[in-house]
């Protein structure tokens, strides 16, 4: 306000002097009383007008420079406020204060942006945003991981990988703003689409949520309920048959043909009881008893256990992992999972001349444990069935191996899936959220 009053006073003073000089000069010239003095007053009024214009231009140039700097988002500009012109010094100090405030606000905005971006990165669900030209402006790590892509610059990269995603984004029906998508890692993803205006530009937002766990939990729960009912009914029906066949075979006077028939009935009934008992274990899996142990140590122990099989089939086993990784979990249950996966790889490499099995540990949260072999791969038509209880491609298989592995990993709050399968490379991946003591790991 002080600066405004000074400027207004200066302008008013100049205008008053110029008006007075012009009025007096005109009066002296037209009355012929002092023509020379009148002319001098006219010249003086011109000099005063020029001085006023020059002062105003100086203010205008300062303001123009200041607003140009704001438009260019340049807040390091500093005006010199130590000249002999008090009004100009006051203007420079005012502009510097405004510039400092803008710089402080810009710094606060950047800090907030970093904070919100950190939160954005920590989201368990994926989030993508792209502008009208299809350029990706935001993509968190979860989105890239769920979509199975390492780097994303333009949306058309996703369209090449997921053609159905492009159709979903371009659909006209505004009510259909969510859909399901199967990722390259065979995960079930729930997509939700939205648009907004940002700086007069349409920005499309895509949220991605992995619902494989929820679907798998419901599927496992359904199978467990069915298995409990079936095993209960079957065992109640078979147990008396076994008991009765044993009683009849022990009676005297039974002829040889009847004895053979009763023996066959008993053996088949006992085999059915054993088969049913294995499914009861699957449906009544105990809760994990967690303890802290060395994951790499466990994998090395399992490799030693299977070393005779590796040597017999000439399989090269490789464990690619940090020197020591500790996790918290039920060691016996996890050992059963890893041993089953290794045995499956050994069986897949049966008759293979140069078999290879690679176990790799990557990441920290989640921990990725992958089991890869160079066998023939899993045919497309049965990939969706390999985790279903009772399904098996082996002649003597009961069909609970992989389904039991998934159940155990899910009870450890992890994920288990087939990440890749083609001739020459099959990979099963375990995602595990370990309770890792990083200080101890670093000290190893």
TrEMBL record:
Keyword Nucleotide-binding: yes
Catalysed reactions, as listed in the record: ATP + protein L-histidine = ADP + protein N-phospho-L-histidine
Domain Histidine kinase: 229-436
Pfam family, one: HATPase_c
Xref: InterPro entries: HATPase_C_sf, HATPase_dom, His_kinase_dom, PAS, PAS-like_dom_sf, Sig_transdc_His_kin-like_C
Bilayer-crossing regions: 7-28, 34-53
Stated name of the protein: histidine kinase
Organism: Bacteroides pyogenes
């Amino acid at each position: 306000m002080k600066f405004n009053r000074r400027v207004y006073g200066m302008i008013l003073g100049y205008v008053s002097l110029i008006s007075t000089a012009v009025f007096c000069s005109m009066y002296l010239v037209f009355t012929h009383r002092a023509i020379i003095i009148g002319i001098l007053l006219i010249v003086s009024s011109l000099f005063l007008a020029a001085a006023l214009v020059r002062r105003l231009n100086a203010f205008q140039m300062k303001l123009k420079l200041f607003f140009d700097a704001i438009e260019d988002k340049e807040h390091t500009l500093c005006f010199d406020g130590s000249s002999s012109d008090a009004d100009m010094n006051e203007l420079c100090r005012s502009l510097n204060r405004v510039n400092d405030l803008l710089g402080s606000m810009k710094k606060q905005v950047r800090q907030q942006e970093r904070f919100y971006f950190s939160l954005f990165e920590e989201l368990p669900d994926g989030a993508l945003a792209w502008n009208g030209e299809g350029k990706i402006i935001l993509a968190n790590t979860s989105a890239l991981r769920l979509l199975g892509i390492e780097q994303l610059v333009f949306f058309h990269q996703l369209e090449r990988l997921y053609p159905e995603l492009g159709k979903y984004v371009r659909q006209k029906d505004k009510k259909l703003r969510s859909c399901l998508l199967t990722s390259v890692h065979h995960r079930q993803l729930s997509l939700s689409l939205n648009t907004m205006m940002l700086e007069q530009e349409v920005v499309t937002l895509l949220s991605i949520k992995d619902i494989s766990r929820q679907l798998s939990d419901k599927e496992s729960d359904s199978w467990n309920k069915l298995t409990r009912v079936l095993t209960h009914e079957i065992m109640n029906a078979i147990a008396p048959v076994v008991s009765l066949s044993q009683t009849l075979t022990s009676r005297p006077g039974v002829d040889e043909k009847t004895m053979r028939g009763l023996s066959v009935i008993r053996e088949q009934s006992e085999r059915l009881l054993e088969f049913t008992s294995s499914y009861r274990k699957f449906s009544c899996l105990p809760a994990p008893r967690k303890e802290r142990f060395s994951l790499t140590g466990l994998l090395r122990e399992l490799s030693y256990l299977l070393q005779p099989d590796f040597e017999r089939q000439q399989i090269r086993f490789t464990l690619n992992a940090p020197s020591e990784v500790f996790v918290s979990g039920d060691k016996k249950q996890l050992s059963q999972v890893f041993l089953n996966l290794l045995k499956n790889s050994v069986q897949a490499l049966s008759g293979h001349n140069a078999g290879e099995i690679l176990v790799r540990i990557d990441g920290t949260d989640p921990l990725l444990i992958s089991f890869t072999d160079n066998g023939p791969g899993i045919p497309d038509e049965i990939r969706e069935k390999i985790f279903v209880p009772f399904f098996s491609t082996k002649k003597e298989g009961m069909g609970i191996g992989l389904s039991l592995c998934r159940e155990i990993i899910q009870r450890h709050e992890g994920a288990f899936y087939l990440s890749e399968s083609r001739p020459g490379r099959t990979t099963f991946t375990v995602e595990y959220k370990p309770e890792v003591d990083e200080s101890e790991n670093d000290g190893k």
